[in-house]
Write a structure and sequence with these properties.
Among the domains are: 190 residues, no CATH class; 94 residues, Immunoglobulin-like (Sandwich); 99 residues, Immunoglobulin-like; 86 residues, Immunoglobulin-like; 93 residues, Sandwich (Immunoglobulin-like), CATH 2.60.40.1930; 114 residues, Immunoglobulin-like (Sandwich); 140 residues, Alpha-macroglobulin, receptor-binding domain (Immunoglobulin-like). The chain is 15% helix and 41% strand. The strands form 22 sheets. Strands 41, 43, 51, 53, 54 and 55 form a 6-stranded mixed beta sheet that branches. Strands 50, 57, 59, 61, 63 and 66 form a 6-stranded mixed beta sheet that branches. The chain has a 5-stranded mixed beta sheet with strand order 2-8-7-4-5, with no helix packed on it. A hairpin with a 4-residue loop joins strand 72 and strand 73. The radius of gyration is 42 Å and the shape is globular. Belongs to the protease inhibitor I39 (alpha-2-macroglobulin) family. It comes from Synaphobranchus kaupii (Kaup's arrowtooth eel).
């Protein structure tokens, strides 16, 4: 109780008025500032008696700084700048003012907040969306709060995928030139979703920018639905206008399906829809009047169905491309709405009260609208009649001289009748409170009608009225002003105003706001004057400033339109010395993400203080206002109230509104009624017989994005002559992404070749310089030609199939042209005119025409099809019109590629030889034989020679197998071999920059892909989170591979640590690692428990990772393996264990295991190898276990009976097994074999030596190849013409040469398969005029000797001219046996976990005809075991419409 009384006494003392003899003082300073910045403080002192010492100081826990110290003998006013001390955390400081004289001693303190210094970080990507496989390009800019370049150091810049995996990282990136330029490639398998770029400063502040990776097709055109802003209750119909426009600005011709719906937000109300069909006119638009009442829309009440939605599907003529557009509008009961805007919450008697009334509604209803305005003040009613302008705005300025009372209410009506009836109707209300002034004198700053321009000074106007005797004889009065921007006082001054005669002084004053570009986004102005013996008179107001920057940047193309492939000149102008970031992207990208552009609003929105409003919580003033009482009793106290000012009802509120602290002994606050301190006040409040002091602190009112860091896209988170002919082949989405210095002149012209896309290119740019940041207004260039040709053809066909080639020619000239369209002849296909077709026609303005040829593909491979359209110079007339010839782009040529494939299925046979002639010439004969039945013309053969055993794998690091890579284990084939190749080339000093760059790119992309298969617990599985758990074997494989790759690329160590932790949790009491998850690699089964095999593999992985053999996990695992040695009856297990114990340096066990393996080795003319005792002849397993033996021999100390020649015999056999791409049969055998071969190649590498390889044939072929240390990595290849044929290979010299002859041919699908059975069938209704839809059903069954298979792949080729209907994939995705579905060009790949023996599985998909093909060939379907490709089956299916001649007419 005593404590509360003491608080009350102190607050009463603080709230008491100034003594009449005290000198008056006023100190103004911002309520918050930034450490290390320069701030301004202003002091004002009015003397009463004698000289006074006036001192201002800044006090913190660390220091006291004197800001001003003066001996004052006359009225004093001064503003001084001071350096704010730096801080590392938000710090509350004190401003201390003291006034001392002979008989005067005044002292007072106020709190201000000092924030740590920081910078603005802007992250900008070249595009808001990307396709998987595209490169992410982004730039980071660092600015201070004045938009000057800030030398920031980013401790970490990282890129996270949608699962929050860190997939890329850049450390200690400093910005010295103002802009940091970074990029990162993504993979074609990149996970789709939102990615995040995060930049961390050394002070721990993070800024993020997001972008999205999705599969998309850029829209060729935009569909816009135009509706009225509102539909009124009395309307029975409305007009819908829908337009299609190409990105290059021309109209789209096509048909529309339009759905018009009433939707209700109420859960139980149905949706009513109507459908309409429309066609565009020549402007690309269609208009229709739609009835919105009656029929299905009879319940269109605005309260139940408040909106109307229109969705349109527009189909482009000629191509069938369909795009959507939508729009919506609201139903309203009334025609118009009115409201008050920019109308003050307080009035000042004697000064006009200015405001606006805004009328909302249809444009025809709001202009010149009569508005009736009434004011009500203490029973007095006044009325005015106003008229709106064209925008529906009615401004008013009301005389307040006769407004009495504390409140005045305003009412606005749209009908006079409503004012007489008092009926609210279409009306608006507003209440204004009287501003408190002790002396009834007022100052009011006038609002600006619009934001102040940033290129010239702004004008501040104010009115004043002064009442009282004090100024009766005074002729002039000094006024003072402060201008704040971004929270700091940046301008100040004072001026003298001449006063009129008379008791009441009234007038206007003005002054200029200078350098307004520095004041944006708001100039917060305080104007005040000190009245002798009467206190302060003040007002404050926010003036919005146009958002602009000091660095004036402009971009302009020299021409607004240019031909594709032509030269474009982008003129850049900026402050001399600027570095400019330029970007130009396809307008189609912005159609998909229109809100992702960098803008002045977004830059200013990053400011920690946009403008000040109220005080931060930590520096709030908790002083009570004075209280007024008619009683002299001391038992009165100010009533409890909220001290946080939210309006400007008194002088205190004037300063609070702009965040200025006023340290003064003037009376600033409006008095409040005093309440008696009685027991009844505290009754029921927990205090008996006394009062409760209720303090309700206000909140800091910083308007803007916030100084802490907040989330959001791009936000700071918690924080030449033209060519006569154009040939178009270059179609990027980002055209320009350049960093360009403008030099001392401040100007530069950037020359670029215009891409071949006919579209609008949206260009933007920003610049940094010592003068500041600048942002250019967007500009554009339309890549366009007066007429052009577009081709429609299938992606691929089978040889001898016949299809129509359609060329659509567009003429966008205003006049007619005579166009001749031609197909360039080629030996690769035959092209014939269609019956009755003409290829020379008139084409008038805004018209298009389709020209057709019938093509038959005759040559296998990729075929170029070239079509040209030429505008002819001729005297012929088009109708009655003389034809014209365009000045530029008279010929347009388009080249498209068609893939022509053979019938049947491809077979590949490799004949390999590792020839080492050091002991004398070495010869080998190779016979190329074809089967009795093969596809005529499909056979081809090639010969390649390399001087390095690893050369073929180096050439094909991205395609070591001709198989899909759609699961986590298969992806590692594109990852792990790069590590072994890089190590080998480093050891042998052959690592060239281009090879290193290529390998590191594959490492980065493989790393990104593998994260798609990561589980949240750190484990990995074949299909990621679609699997129920991680997989022991794959997790170990990924762990060791990531560890090996850290030498070359960034990989977050957490991924390795978490994988190891997960593996440690799988240990059992006997030390063995249990098998978790699906083990696709069945070669690790058989003869010994899965757990022993997995333990051997995991232990080897840990040891490869560098884990010490004394590590507890390694020790217990080795114990498990040692105990299991007596149980081993599997050659595969023996080979793997020999490698594991070699890494563990257990030489006795190693020697024993290798000795046993030697006894079961198989020696042939090709060399030495091992086969699985339960699966002899299985190439993949044989390669893998043979490679483990080679690893065991080369990873430890030499064994007496197993020298390098023993290893050489193994390598000879492995070399014979290599496929044409440098890999082997499957994934794991390829990975292990390449790891072993790189060890061997490094051990046997010799810089010197050279050899000559001579290849001859009985048919007269002869060719010679030279191999030496300078070209040992060169891939030398020739095509062989004699197939079949016998070739002789002879090597002479001192260097080994790796020679491979590859034979490829196609065979019809075999009819008998023992391991698998596959059947396919297509059904559907054949239509002669419309597109044909076919349902393809595929049945597969496993018939082999195992109970179930490894992972199974089903590959389905689509019929030529058909496309996959995307919606049909849902059934496949929902099938529990299907783990993944991939679409490739012309193929669908289905991944299955497994197939159980003799269990038939069926799968379905729907294909739709895109291009009609005649003589349609069957399409092949294939099923095979991924890890044992010798288990496979092939079949084919045909279209039920293929035999119908009339349906195949083109």
């Amino acid at each position: 109780m005593l404590g509360l009384l003491l608080i009350a006494c102190l607050l009463l003392q603080a709230a008491s008025s100034r003594h009449p003899d005290e000198p008056m003082y006023l100190v103004t300073v911002t309520s918050q500032t930034t450490g290390g910045s320069t701030e301004t403080i202003c002091g004002h002192l009015l003397l009463q008696k004698g000289p006074l010492s006036f001192m201002l100081a800044l006090e913190t826990d660390a220091s006291n700084i004197t800001l001003l110290e003066e001996l004052v003998t006359t009225e004093f006013h001064r503003c001084v700048q001071f350096q704010v001390p730096p801080v590392v955390t938000e710090t509350v400081a004190l401003i201390h003012a003291s006034v001392k004289g002979e008989k005067t001693s005044l002292s007072k303190k106020i709190k201000i907040l000092i924030k740590p210094s920081s910078s603005l970080t802007i992250i900008m990507t070249d595009k808001p969306i990307y396709k998987p496989g595209q490169t992410i390009k982004f730039r980071i800019v660092s600015l201070d709060y004045s938009f000057l370049p800030y030398k920031e150091v980013y401790q970490t810049v990282e890129l996270q995928d949608p699962n929050s995996n860190r997939i890329a990282q850049w450390l200690n990136q400093s910005i010295t030139t103002g802009i940091l330029d970074l990029s990162h490639p993504t993979t074609r398998e990149a996970k789709q979703g939102v990615y995040t770029i995060s930049a961390w400063t050394t002070r721990g502040i993070i800024t993020t920018q997001t972008f999205e990776i999705i599969e998309y097709v850029l829209p060729k055109f935009e569909v816009k639905v135009h509706l009225p802003d509102v539909i009124f209750g009395q309307d029975i119909k409305t007009t819908v206008k829908i337009c299609g426009k190409y990105t290059y600005g021309k109209p789209v011709m096509g048909s529309m399906k339009v759905q018009v719906c009433h939707k209700s937000p109420l859960p139980y109300c149905p949706t009513f829809c109507m459908e309409h069909t429309m066609r565009t006119d020549k402007t690309g638009c269609a208009t229709k009047s739609i009835y919105i009442t009656g029929g299905s829309f009879q319940y269109g009440y605005p309260n139940i169905y408040p909106s109307l939605t229109v969705v349109c599907e527009m189909e482009e003529d000629g191509t069938g491309v369909v795009l959507k557009g939508s729009g919506s509008t609201k139903f309203v009961s009334d025609e118009i709405f009115i409201k008050f805007q920019d109308t003050p919450s307080t009035f000042k008697p004697g000064i006009n009260y200015d405001g606006k009334i805004i009328v909302k509604g249809a444009a025809s209803l709001i202009a010149n609208k009569t508005i009736f305005l009434s004011t009500y003040s203490m029973g007095n009613i006044s009325r005015w009649t106003l008229t709106t302008d064209s925008e529906g705005v009615a401004s008013f300025s009301l005389d307040t001289s006769y407004w009495s009372g504390e409140l005045t209410s305003l009412q606005a009506y749209c009908h006079e009748l409503l004012t007489q009836m008092g009926f609210p109707g279409r009306s608006a209300g507003h209440t204004a409170s009287k501003f408190y002034s002790k002396n009834n004198s007022f100052l009011s700053i006038k609002q600006a009608k619009e934001p102040l321009p940033c290129d010239k000074d702004g004008q501040v106007l104010a009115s004043y009225i002064i009442r009282g005797e004090e100024l009766k004889e005074k002729k002039t009065l000094d006024f003072f002003y402060l201008v704040l921007s971004k929270g700091s006082i940046v301008q100040h001054g004072h001026f003298e105003v001449m006063l009129n005669e008379g008791e009441v002084k009234r007038g206007e004053l003005s002054f200029s706001l200078q350098q307004t570009e520095d004041l944006a986004p708001y100039a917060q102005v305080v104007v005040y004057t000190v009245l002798p013996n009467a206190g302060l008179m003040a007002d404050s107001l926010d003036f919005p400033i146009q958002l602009c920057f000091k660095n004036k940047v402009s971009l302009q193309f020299s021409s607004s339109q240019e031909l594709p492939g032509g030269k474009a000149f982008l003129e850049v102008q900026a402050q001399p010395g600027s570095l400019c970031s330029l970007r130009a992207i396809d307008q189609s990208v912005l159609l998909m993400r229109p809100d992702e552009e960098l803008s002045a609003q977004k830059i200013y929105g990053k400011l920690p203080v946009y403008k000040l409003s109220e005080y931060p919580y930590d520096v709030q003033d908790w002083e009570m206002p004075p209280c007024l009482s008619h009683s002299t009793s001391s038992s009165h106290f100010a009533q409890p109230l909220n001290f946080g000012h939210t309006d400007k009802t008194d002088l205190y509120g004037i300063f609070v509104a702009v965040g200025v602290k006023a340290l003064t002994n003037f009376d600033m606050k409006k008095p409040v009624p005093c309440l008696p301190m009685t027991s009844s006040y505290g009754a029921g409040r927990g205090v008996s017989g006394n009062f409760v002091l209720q303090l309700h602190p206000g909140s800091a009112g910083i308007v803007g994005s916030g100084g802490i860091v907040g989330s959001g896209r791009g936000g700071t988170i918690q924080p030449p002559k033209p060519f006569a002919e154009t040939i178009r082949t270059f179609f990027p989405e980002t055209w320009i992404w350049e960093l360009v210095p403008v030099g001392d002149s401040g100007r530069i012209t950037v020359e670029q070749t215009v891409p071949d896309t006919i579209t609008k290119w949206a260009a933007s740019g920003f610049c940094t310089s010592p003068a500041g940041f600048g942002l250019a207004a967007n500009t554009s260039l339309t890549a366009f030609q007066p007429f052009f040709v577009s081709l429609t053809l299938p992606y691929s066909v089978i040889r001898e199939e016949v299809f129509p080639l359609k060329a659509m020619v567009f003429n966008y000239l205003s006049r007619c042209i005579m166009v001749h369209v031609s197909l360039r002849e080629s030996a690769q296909f035959t092209g014939q005119p269609c019956e009755g077709c003409q290829y020379r026609r008139c084409l008038c303005g805004e018209e298009s025409e389709t020209f057709t040829w019938v093509l038959t593909a005759t040559t296998l491979g990729r075929v170029n099809i070239t079509v040209s359209a030429e505008a002819l110079s001729t005297e012929e007339l088009c109708g009655n019109e003389v034809v014209t010839v365009p000045e530029r782009g008279q010929i347009d040529t388009v080249v498209r590629t068609l893939l022509v494939e053979p019938e049947g299925t491809e077979q590949t046979i490799s004949h390999n030889a590792l020839l080492c002639p050091q002991e004398g010439a070495v010869e080998k004969a190779v016979s190329l034989e074809l089967p009795e039945v093969f596809v005529e013309g499909s056979a081809k053969a090639s010969l390649s020679v390399l001087g390095d055993l690893m050369g073929r794998a180096m050439k094909n690091l991205d395609s070591l197998l001709a198989m899909p890579f759609g699961c986590g284990e298969q992806n590692m084939l594109r990852f792990a071999p790069n590590i072994y190749i890089l190590r080998y080339l480093e050891i042998t000093e052959q690592l060239a920059p281009e090879i290193k760059s290529k390998a590191i790119t594959y490492l980065k992309s493989g790393f990104q892909r593998e994260l798609n298969y990561k589980h949240s617990d750190g484990s990995y599985s074949a299909f990621g989170k679609s699997d129920s758990s991680g997989n022991t074997w794959l997790t170990a494989f990924v762990m060791k591979s990531f560890g090996g790759a850290t030498r070359y690329i960034f990989i977050d160590p957490q991924y390795i640590t978490s994988a190891k932790l997960w593996l440690s949790l799988q240990r059992q009491t006997n030390g063995c690692i249990k098998s978790v998850g699906k083990l696709f690699h069945n070669g690790m089964k058989g003869g010994v428990s899965d757990e022993v095999m997995l333990t051997a593999y995991v232990t080897a992985a840990l040891l490869e990772l560098g884990t010490n053999s004394t590590d507890p996990m390694v020790q217990t695992s080795l114990s498990c393996l040692t105990l299991a040695l007596d149980q081993i009856n599997s050659t595969y297990a023996t080979a793997l264990l020999s490698y594991t114990f070699t890494l563990a340096r257990d030489n006795n066990t190693r020697a024993s295991l290798i000795g046993h393996l030697d006894k079961v080795a198989i020696i042939t003319a090709q060399g030495r190898h091992w086969e699985h005792n339960w699966a002899p002849g299985k190439g993949s397993l044989a390669v893998e276990m043979t490679s483990y033996v080679l690893l065991a021999l080369l990873s430890g100390p030499p064994l007496s009976d197993f020298d390098l020649s023993y290893s050489t015999s193994i390598v000879h056999w492995l070399a014979h097994q290599q496929n044409p791409y440098g890999g082997f049969s499957s994934t794991q055998d390829t990975v292990v074999a390449l790891q072993a071969l790189t060890l061997y190649a490094a051990a046997t590498f010799s810089k010197g030596g050279a050899s000559t390889v001579m290849v001859t044939s009985a048919g007269g072929y002869e060719s010679q190849f030279h191999v030496d240390e300078h070209n040992r990595l060169l891939y030398q290849e020739e095509q062989l013409q004699e197939v079949p044929g016998v070739y002789s290979i002879k090597a002479e010299g001192k260097a080994c040469a790796f020679v491979q002859i590859t034979l490829q041919y196609n065979i019809p699908p075999p009819t008998d398969f023992s391991s698998f059975t596959i059947n396919a069938n297509a059904t559907g209704v054949c239509k002669s005029t419309k597109k044909t839809f076919l349902t393809v059903s595929v049945q597969v069954r496993y018939n082999g000797g195992r109970e179930k298979t490894n992972m199974v792949i089903i590959s389905i080729r689509l019929l030529s001219g058909f496309l996959l209907q995307k919606s049909s994939l849902k059934q496949l995705h929902d099938d529990s046996t299907v783990k993944r579905v991939e679409e490739e060009e012309g193929h669908l790949i289905i991944y299955l976990d497994e197939l159980k023996k003799m269990a038939t599985m069926s799968y379905f998909l729907v294909i739709v005809e895109d291009v009609r093909v005649r003589n349609l060939k069957p399409a092949v379907v294939k099923v095979y075991d991924y890890y044992d490709k010798s288990d496979e089956a092939v079949s084919e299916y045909s279209s039920p419409c293929a035999q119908s001649d009339d349906l195949n007419q083109l």
